[in-house]
Amino acid sequence: MPLLMDSLIGRSIRGLCFVLLSSALSLSSSGCTLLGFAAYAMPRPDVQPKYSEMTGQTVGVMVWADRGIRIDWPTVQLDLANAIQKKLSNEATKKDPPKVLKGTTFPVQAASIVRYQKDHPEIDARPITEIAPRLGVSRLIYVELEDFATRSDMSVDLFRGTANATIRVLEIDGGVAKVGFEQNNVRAAFPQKAPKEGIPGAGDQRIYAGIIDAFATEVTHQFVPYQAEE
108, 196, 136: which is closest to 160 by C-alpha? Predict the structure, then answer.
């Protein structure tokens, strides 16, 4: 009889231990699931701008492109400068603008700067630090466009927009300009998820408009907080 009682008690204890262990594992698994869901549901932190000295400044945008790019795309300087300035201006005029653009204004139209470039072709041979004080702003975003294309390198029948540039910000004070920021190899592609060899049948104009917008977004990301894509 004592042996039977010991056996029953042992089984009860083992059963109880099994139930407790199963419950603990279940709670642990549920807890991990809940934590994972909460982490997924939480908004991702913003990527902070690389340059943040535009608060309260007057800002202009100048795009430089070599002769070969301008022959293929005569309006690329105006189109890209306009797109960059519009995106930044839209951020600055929000009801609750990012801190880095509070009080920032854009008093000089991109068309005026492009007109100045065309009227004074000699400035291509002068340092941008010499030219920037003439443009009537306290910050000049200077985009040196090094590559721009709407077709794949692999085939002229396949379309894929690409752009690559160096971006500088000229800080102007008392008629003197200095480079306050420089970022090399700023790149964009359109369509972003298209294969590197390109896609058929898209057309130059569609790809041109897409890469202008995509690259303007990349430039804007240097100066305002944004959420990175997954």
Answer: 196
Cα–Cα distance for residue pair 99/49, rounded to 1 Å: 11
Q: What is the pLDDT of residues 45-56, one digit of tens each?
A: 889 999 999 999
The kind and range of the H/E element at 185 are strand 176-190
Structure confidence by residue, pLDDT tens digits, 190-227: 998 888 889 999 999 999 999 999 999 999 999 999 98
DSSP structure string for 29-87: HHHHHHHHHHHHHSPPPPBPPS----TT-BEEEEEEE-HHHHHH-TTHHHHHHHHHHHH
Tokens at 16, concatenated: 């109880």
What's the pTM value of the predicted model, to 2 decimals? 0.81
Both ends of the chain: CA-CA distance in Å? 68
